[in-house]
Write a structure and sequence with these properties.
- This protein has 287 residues and is mainly alpha-helical.
- The protein has a domain of 191 residues.
- The chain is built from eleven helices and two strands; from the N terminus they run ααααββααααααα.
- It has a two-stranded antiparallel sheet with strand order 1-2.
- Helix 2 packs across helix 9 and helix 10 packs antiparallel against helix 11.
- The longest helix is centred in the N-terminal third of the chain and has 32 residues.
- The protein starts with a helix and ends in a 9-residue tail after the last helix.
């Protein structure tokens, strides 16, 4: 009983940290640019398929991780420059239609390139073992590695946002775009940086998640829904809020599916409803 609870707690933390990678980019994009990106879950899926492709060709998942980050940054910058910059000041309905169209395009591209089958990505051989935790219970070394990578990324992101000049510009853009001029930054470049970073984080999450589950069409849909819940609970534009909210959602969702499967989804949605009633701007928002 105790070992099962410990396993589920570790799974919940690891799942929550993956949610953080996705939702941190989502909250920054919406908080800074005011763009509702429904295609963010598709970017997670693209990262997973990229990991499958690179691992199939080279036999190395480790090579897929920097490819996902760098490829995601370039892809995000191109999307922002060519599409999202033109829609930043448009109505939210226009943004929703744009991102829904991108979902369809990404799905068609995925189908043409990789088909509609389910694929598996093997766990790297160096991490294909269990780490003793308590008694005779062992936990997957790869899952622990994912947990550690996500924590390092979270720490780096918080340092970037809170301690650097670029982070000051991003925070200023989330509060008031006109403040960027006083800081000597170009608003367009900051928006490109934020969108590129958010895309890179989503694709990194997909690459890390690929060995943990099958790679399949539409695999980002569930993550997208939970990521929006994380953003609502944590507060728009708050990276720290996204971190704590993602851990909370990950634990509630994982423990709920393990012990109360009929009420797991209800518990997460009920928590979001309570937060909206008590603090509409989110638990960790600055307002």
């Amino acid at each position: 009983m105790l070992t099962g609870l410990i396993a589920q707690l570790l799974n919940g933390v690891q799942y929550g940290l993956l949610l953080f990678l996705i939702s941190s980019g989502l909250t920054l994009i919406f908080g800074v640019m005011g763009v509702i990106n429904l295609a963010h879950g598709s970017l997670f899926m693209i990262g997973a398929y990229l990991a499958f492709g690179v691992a199939s060709l080279t036999g190395s998942l480790w090579l897929a991780l920097p490819v996902a980050v760098l490829g995601g940054a370039v892809f995000g910058a191109v999307l922002e420059r060519l599409l999202f910059r033109r829609f930043r000041t448009r109505a939210h309905l226009d943004q929703v239609l744009l991102t829904f169209a991108l979902i369809l395009l990404f799905e068609e591209g995925r189908s043409a390139l990789a088909g509609n089958q389910f694929h598996s990505v093997p766990v790297p051989a160096v991490l294909d073992f269990s780490v003793p935790v308590i008694g005779g219970f062992g936990y997957s070394a790869y899952r622990l590695a994912v947990l550690a990578i996500c924590l390092l990324v979270a720490a780096g992101l918080v340092w970037l946002i809170e301690r650097t000049r670029i982070g000051s510009a991003i925070r200023a853009a989330a509060e008031n775009t006109e403040m960027l001029n006083l800081l000597g930054f170009d608003a367009g470049r900051v928006h490109t940086l934020v969108f590129a970073g958010g895309t890179a984080l989503a694709m990194l999450a997909g690459a890390l998640a690929a060995p943990l589950q099958s790679v399949y069409p539409g695999m980002g849909d569930g993550f997208l829904i939970l990521s929006f819940i994380v953003v609502v609970i944590g507060g728009l534009g708050s990276v720290a809020g996204a971190f704590w909210a993602a851990l909370l959602v990950g634990l509630i969702d994982t423990l709920g599916k393990a012990y109360l499967p009929q009420a797991a989804g209800i518990a997460v949605c009920a928590m979001m409803a309570v937060v909206l009633l008590w603090r509409p701007t989110g638990l960790f928002s600055r307002t």
